[in-house]
Design a protein that fits this description.
The protein contains 21 helices and no strands. The protein has 434 residues and is an all-alpha fold. Helix 5 runs parallel beside helix 8, helix 8 runs antiparallel to helix 9 and helix 8 runs parallel beside helix 19. The longest helix is centred in the middle third of the chain and has 31 residues. The two termini are 39 Å apart. It comes from Corticibacter populi.
């Protein structure tokens, strides 16, 4: 088994270094390990590959992923973000630090609709980049704020990451994970506001903001009410038992199309093909990676590659907080280079036995892993959210480095609080009976 484990991780590492797509690297390395383990009956052993490829995506909760991805594309083009921004400015007024705060609040709100960080960065950035630049904020700072703000979407339900985690961990249901993400997600958003406002005042940014007109409140509220109603419909409908999370995604699609095509009239019939194609491509990539990762996970679990490691850590006498610190460090490092879904698919099968050894709650552990993924979404060099916001702001990612550290520190502070007080994540699911 030691030789098989070495083959599994060696093939995966070599393929990643060569630039092979993450899904192909996972599937091919898993297939190589399975073939090596079944040398006496290779054809019979290799039958596990197509079986697990199909089983990896033949799961009901995964049906929600294409729909929530489509919701993100629809609301990106519906004009909801612009109207929410106007309402937030009407409430908070003008002044240094207000527009960055508005960008974060609107991103948090959009997180209750689609749960896609890059889609949120595109929607909020499309509105806020120009507004913040005109108010005197540097483009690199604007890109950093929007990239960090969009990271809240992976925590605030609905969340594609939570759906994938629930498929990988049977003891964590989608409703429980959605409920568990609310408090930490809001805490992350509020924590990000602190450096945004402090840096604005410290560096004298946003001086032109006070001279800009303030939108009238009641008109802004009337225009934004359809966007405000979206998360209430999605999350409230799930809580009331009107529909499951998967059905909620379909309801959100129809609601978004109604708002975009009938109410705001920002989406035309000829725009639908582009929206559907964009969502289909992204959904296909996600589900293909999930299917190929199932082969990798099968190789890990069936051949008992991870169990000896978990037992060794348990027998070593290491303090659980030291183990947690090592887990966080591991995920932070890999989060700089891998997207969130890949991190879940690679590391959840590796880390779950360790979590079981220490008796960590699977829902709390899922929130902790998702916090690490959120951090990776705006940590260079990959930083998918930051990549989108930098493109919109017209700056290179290197230019954001002086600002990124402050927002990472804010997220680390929230992560430390969730580790120290697990009830921050578990209180809401307990109150709702999940």
């Amino acid at each position: 088994m030691t030789e098989i484990a070495l083959v599994l991780f060696a093939v995966f590492s070599v393929l990643m270094v060569l630039g092979v797509p993450i899904g192909v690297a996972l599937g091919f390395s898993g297939a190589a390990a399975i073939a090596m383990a079944n040398q006496d009956a290779p054809l019979l052993g290799l039958m596990a590959i197509p079986q697990n490829f199909y089983a990896g995506i033949a799961k009901y909760p995964l049906l929600a992923i294409p729909m929530f991805v489509l919701v993100g594309s629809i609301f990106d083009r519906s004009g909801v973000a612009a109207r929410l921004v106007n309402l937030a400015v009407a409430i908070f007024g003008r002044g240094p630090g207000v527009l960055p705060m508005v960008a974060i609040l609107v991103a948090m709100f959009l997180g209750g609709i689609s749960g896609s960080g890059p889609a949120c960065a595109a929607a909020v950035g499309g509105v806020m980049v120009v507004a913040m630049r005109n108010a005197g904020y540097p483009p690199a700072f604007n890109a950093t704020v929007i990239g960090a703000a969009a990271a809240t979407d992976i925590l605030i339900p609905p969340s594609v990451a939570f759906i994938i985690y629930s498929v990988l961990v049977p003891g964590a249901s989608v409703p429980a994970l959605f409920a568990a993400g609310i408090v930490p997600g809001v805490m992350v958003g509020l924590a990000l506001i602190i450096p945004a406002i402090w840096l604005s005042h410290r560096h004298g940014m946003g001086r032109n903001e006070a001279s800009l007109p303030r939108p009238p409140f009641w008109r802004s509220l009337r225009q934004a009410v359809w966007g405000i109603a979206a998360p209430i419909l999605i999350l409230g409908g799930m809580r009331m038992g009107w529909f499951t999370p998967t059905e909620a995604a379909v309801v959100a699609v129809y609601y978004g199309l109604f708002v975009g095509m009938v109410v705001y009239r920002t989406i035309r019939v000829r725009d639908l093909f582009g929206i559907f194609r964009e969502a289909a491509e992204l959904s296909a990539i996600i589900l293909l990676v999930v299917a190929l990762a199932s082969i990798f996970a099968y190789a890990l679990s069936t051949m008992s590659i991870i169990d000896p490691l978990a037992r060794a850590i348990s027998a070593s006498g290491m303090n659980e907080y030291l183990v947690l610190a090592l887990v966080v460090l591991l995920l932070v490092v890999f989060g700089m280079f891998l997207d969130g879904i890949s991190i879940f698919l690679i590391f959840v099968p590796l880390l779950l036995p360790i979590a079981e050894v220490f008796g960590w709650d699977p829902v709390w552990f899922g929130v902790l892993l998702t916090l690490n993924v959120a951090l990776g979404q705006f940590t260079p060099p990959l930083a998918v959210n930051l990549m989108v916001s930098c493109r919109l702001a017209g700056v290179h990612m290197q230019a954001t480095m002086p600002w990124v550290g402050w927002f990472l520190a804010a997220l680390f502070a929230v992560m430390a609080m969730v580790i120290a007080w697990p009830q921050l994540a578990l209180w809401m699911p307990q109150q709702l009976g999940y």
